[in-house]
């Protein structure tokens, strides 16, 4: 059944994939900051323009869904890495890997309803020297194709949103940064953001020693989440609604001026509280994001100047957690620890097959060594799950032989490390000259760990 569901999701994506190209053209003129719905299960901690910094994060997630849309959600692929990799592969196929040129700095702006995202967007852009228009995810999804999918009760999948956003990012001037409003919303999108950072880092490493080095800058991600409590959110939105209605009435009365957009949620307190409830409902997504890219919530209560100063201090804090660019470039070729073993199993199998095919006699010697010297010690220490084997067996002087032994044991589930020790042992003293003659002794050590077995004490069996 899971394969059928996956197939359905892939078919659904293929039907909507063509809409992405049409969305980009419209997105160029539709980018604007708009109000989002977010989430949080518990009252978040925050940094205030009038107080100290405290750690926290909040999350965003789309809330609307028809009953048919819920069925579509059930069939949607939920593996974040698979979703991102498919979207990224589509991007590479469309532009070509070597032609991908993303902005160096990304500012991801999120916040509670009525927290002032629109108010502070222009100030953030000026402060960071960003001339690209902001990318508003909700505006990207206002295309006729997306509306048709929603009207049909179909899900706007994370993969569609991610790919659409990547196209919009690539449509920016890469020489300056870009502000993204309303992303990430879901757990999958949060993980996709980390995967995007990894891809940009990988591209920089790949092209670092080429003439395209400057095309692939070190990625800089800044997170800005504005927070206000529910009552302030409600009062701000109601006040905004009153101001808009008064303005529009004056325009209609005098015939002068431009009508402002009037939102239903700016006059209906029930809807306003429902939007804030959605904001509180999904705390986990951005909490997960804060573990990937540390940041603090920003208390958006205060004057525009005070809040903006707090935003800039938050960006300084995030910048302080990163290495200097020269230092980063100097060490970036060293693989990250959690990536060392990504293909370890495949590489191990390949090496063992090579030993057996091209070096069968040496492979057999290694197996015999394990049978005679290793397994008896492992069996003796089976309860502890650890043993140290010290030997002067000269077979271990051959590093390639050691590699084979370690690979065979690793394939069988043992965790093995190897070390050698050289001791200079006095064997003779010349009484006339006082010279001491030394012999060199080589000791080889295998440290082996394996699952231990717990044995219940006898008295516990009768309790």
Automatic annotation (TrEMBL):
An example Gene Ontology molecular-function term: ATP binding
Top-level taxonomic group: Eukaryota
One GO term (biological process): nucleobase-containing compound metabolic process
Keyword Iron applies: no
Keywords: Kinase, Nucleotide-binding, Transferase
InterPro entries in alphabetical order: Adenylat/UMP-CMP_kin, Adenylat_kinase_CS, P-loop_NTPase
Transmembrane segments: none
Signal peptide: none
Family statement: Belongs to the adenylate kinase family.
Protein name (record): Adenylate kinase
Organism annotation: Apophysomyces ossiformis
């Amino acid at each position: 059944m899971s394969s059928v569901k996956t197939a359905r999701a892939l078919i659904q994506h293929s039907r909507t994939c063509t809409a992405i190209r049409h969305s980009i053209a419209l997105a160029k003129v539709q980018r604007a900051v708009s109000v989002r719905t977010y989430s949080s299960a518990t009252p978040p901690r925050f940094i205030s323009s009038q107080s100290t910094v405290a750690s926290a994060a909040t999350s965003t997630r789309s809330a609307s869904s028809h009953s048919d849309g819920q069925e579509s959600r059930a069939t949607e692929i939920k593996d974040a890495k698979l979703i991102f990799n498919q979207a990224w592969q589509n991007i590479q196929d469309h532009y070509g890997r070597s032609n991908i040129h993303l902005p160096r700095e990304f500012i991801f702006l999120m916040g509670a309803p009525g927290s002032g995202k629109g108010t502070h967007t222009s100030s953030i852009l000026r402060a960071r020297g960003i001339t690209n228009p902001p990318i508003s995810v909700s505006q990207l999804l206002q295309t006729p194709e997306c509306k048709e999918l929603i009207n049909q009760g179909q899900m706007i999948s994370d993969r569609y949103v991610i790919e659409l956003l990547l196209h919009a990012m690539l449509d920016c001037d890469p020489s300056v940064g870009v502000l993204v409003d309303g992303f990430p919303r879901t757990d999958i999108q949060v993980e996709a953001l980390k995967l995007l950072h990894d891809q940009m880092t990988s591209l920089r490493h790949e092209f670092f020693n080429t003439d395209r080095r400057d095309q692939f800058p070190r990625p800089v991600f800044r997170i800005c989440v504005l927070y206000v409590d529910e009552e302030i959110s409600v009062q701000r939105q109601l006040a905004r609604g009153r101001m808009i209605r008064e303005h529009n009435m004056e325009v209609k009365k005098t015939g002068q001026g431009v009508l402002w957009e009037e939102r239903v949620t700016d006059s209906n307190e029930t809807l306003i509280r429902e939007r804030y409830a959605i904001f509180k409902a999904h705390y986990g997504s951005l909490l997960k994001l804060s573990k990937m890219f540390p940041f603090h919530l920003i208390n958006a209560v205060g004057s525009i100047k005070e809040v903006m100063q707090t935003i800039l201090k938050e960006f300084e804090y995030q910048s302080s957690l990163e290495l200097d660019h020269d230092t980063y470039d100097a060490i970036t070729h060293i693989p990250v620890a959690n990536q060392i073993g990504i293909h370890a199993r495949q590489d191990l199998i390949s090496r063992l097959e090579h030993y057996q095919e091209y070096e069968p006699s040496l492979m057999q010697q290694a197996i015999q060594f394990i049978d005679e010297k290793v397994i008896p010690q492992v069996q003796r220490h089976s309860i502890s799950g650890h043993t140290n084997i010290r030997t002067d067996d000269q077979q271990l002087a051959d590093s390639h032989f050691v590699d084979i032994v370690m690979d065979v044991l690793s394939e069988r589930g043992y965790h093995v490390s190897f070390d050698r020790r050289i001791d200079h042992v006095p064997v003779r003293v010349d009484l006339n000259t006082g010279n001491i003659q030394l012999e060199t002794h080589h000791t080889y050590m295998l440290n082996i760990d394996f699952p231990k077995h717990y044995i219940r004490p006898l008295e516990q069996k009768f309790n």
